[in-house]
């Protein structure tokens, strides 16, 4: 089964919800720089359980716990390169185990931005001020380890910078058989986090032959419709959106700052679908209940739409 086949069969693809925040909700201590990647070392069975619960809630795709996993990040935590590669591969294997013998369920290998490894909120700002070669040296080995575990596709996600997205897609050409989606963080309804216009960013990544969907994640859900409208104007490819709960991450205080609260993901999912979103889910602080509500809503919406 592929994403395209799922869209053809049901009109949408349901992504999972927040992984790290769900792990924390279940008692995991993710307070250090490795964040969710620390759980690969401390208790991988909890990661598998969260994946299983998202599948049970109606997710079609599990995104691996590799967002903040990197060779450099594990090295800083005292983990050698070979063990780091094993842990990155393990993130995919756990999602595959949670899927079991259900070929219609997919596993996406998460490729987070360089800024995530800095653990200072840079994935919401960009502007790393590092060389292109350093970025390539950071991303290349983790891509190799991740792809070696044979995910169904990649989620190049929470990317604040068009330059970083383009570099990742250039590296991905080494594996031409593998499809991906690319999703950006945004500072507002018109610009990705580093400042490039949303329309420019979406148009450029969507033109890449391995990109099967483009869009946004870990953005405030209230921005969803404006962002999708902008993206729909520059590409005919499926759009992807999985916002956070509406809360804001305080990197210095390492805490979530409450937002307006009470966002209705079920109602919004239908509107997002109407604007071209075909891959829809949740990001930080969303839960299996969020995903269940999204699926139930889209089943109703697309029955009449189709």
- N/C terminus separation: 20 Å
Q: Major β-sheet, in short? A: 8 strands, parallel
What is the radius of gyration? 17 Å
> Which CATH class applies here?
Alpha Beta
What strand order characterises the main sheet?
1-10-7-6-5-4-3-2
Describe what is shown at a glance.
This protein has 306 residues and is α/β, with parallel strands linked by helices. It has helices at 3-10, 20-25, 38-42, 44-57, 71-76, 81-99, 114-118, 132-148, 162-172, 198-206, 224-232, 265-274, 288-305, and strands at residues 13-14, 61-63, 106-111, 153-159, 180-184, 211-217, 239-242, 248-250, 255-257, 277-280.
Topology:
Elements: H1 3-10, E1 13-14, H2 20-25, H3 38-42, H4 44-57, E2 61-63, H5 71-76, H6 81-99, E3 106-111, H7 114-118, H8 132-148, E4 153-159, H9 162-172, E5 180-184, H10 198-206, E6 211-217, H11 224-232, E7 239-242, E8 248-250, E9 255-257, H12 265-274, E10 277-280, H13 288-305
Parallel strand pairs: 1-10, 2-3, 3-4, 4-5, 5-6, 6-7, 7-10
Antiparallel strand pairs: 8-9
How would you characterize the overall build of this protein?
- By secondary structure, the chain is of the alpha/beta class.
- The longest helix has 19 residues, at 81-99.
- It has 13 helices and 10 strands.
- The strands form 2 sheets. The protein has an 8-stranded parallel beta sheet with strand order 1-10-7-6-5-4-3-2.
- The chain has one domain (3-305): Homocysteine-binding-like domain (TIM Barrel), CATH 3.20.20.
- Helix 4 (44-57) packs parallel to helix 13 (288-305) and helix 9 runs parallel beside helix 10 (198-206).
- The model has no long low-confidence stretch (mean pLDDT 94).
- Helix content is 45%, strand content 14%.
- The chain has helices spanning 3-10, 20-25, 38-42, 44-57, 71-76, 81-99, 114-118, 132-148, 162-172, 198-206, 224-232, 265-274, 288-305; strands at 13-14, 61-63, 106-111, 153-159, 180-184, 211-217, 239-242, 248-250, 255-257, 277-280.
